[in-house]
Structure formats: C-alpha cells, structure tokens
Amino acid sequence: MVSDLDFASVIRLRESGVNAADLGRIRMLGFGPYAAADVIRLRETASTSGRSEALFEAGFSHAGADDAVQVRQDGITVERIRSMKRQGFENLTLEQIVKLSRERRHLTEVAMRLVTKVCGILLCASDRS
41, 58, 66, 98: which has the fewest Cβ within 10 Å? Predict the structure, then answer.
C-alpha cells in the first residue's frame, strides 16, 4: 500500500496512527500504492476504507489520495453513491458526484431554513389568536 516504504516512513506511519487493516482493505479494492505522505494525509482526513468503497462503487478503480480526500470532505458515502445509481445517475465523474452532493446539501439547508421560518410564522399566528 505504501510505495516509498522505508524505516523512516514506517515510524511516521506508526506515529500518525495509520491502521494497517484499513490500508489492507483499501488495497484489496485496487487502490494504491500511495506515497507514505499521502497515506498519512488520508489518515489525518479520516479517509477510511469506507470512502474507498464509495469511490470503487462509483467506478473509480484508480482513484488517488486526492480523490479520497475530496470524497471525505464532501461526505460522500457508499450509501450515497448507491442512492445516486438507483435514481439513474450512473457513469458520473467524481466532479459531477461532488457537485450533486453539494447541491443536495445546499437544498437541504434551504429547506431547513424555510421550515424554521414557517414554524415561526405559525407560532406568531397562534400567539395572536
């Protein structure tokens, strides 16, 4: 999984709390090898095998560390990818998946603000009666 494995990088990986079992699952999906610095960055951003599974499910069998970090930052999960496929969104690029995820999150935030306003209006109306 680590392309530049040497004694110093083994120490850095250990000090960074990199999980060997998680790395093994990521490698079994066909990802990597990654440079030690990228493996540490994946660990620091909590990009686990679950994120790699989301990339794999989306069809990105050669995703890099940057892709895994992007998936993590945008909260894309295996369940979300499967949901997109069920809705007819197949053969999307990572950029398209990220955009759809961001738009969905934005719409959810707008809906929550609208619900809050409506509840406030209803409470004011009920106080007046």
Answer: 66
> Is this model's pTM higher than 0.70 or not?
no
Q: Give the tens place of pLDDT for each residue, 46-74.
A: 777 777 888 888 887 777 888 888 888 88
Could you tell me which residues are beta bridge partners of residue 15?
Answer: none
**25 contacts: CB under 8 Å, gap ≥ 6:** 49, 52
Give the domain ranges of the chain: 7-128
- What six digits make up the tokens of 63? 């995703």
List alpha helices for 1-129, DSSP H: 7-15, 20-28, 36-44, 49-57, 65-73, 78-86, 94-128
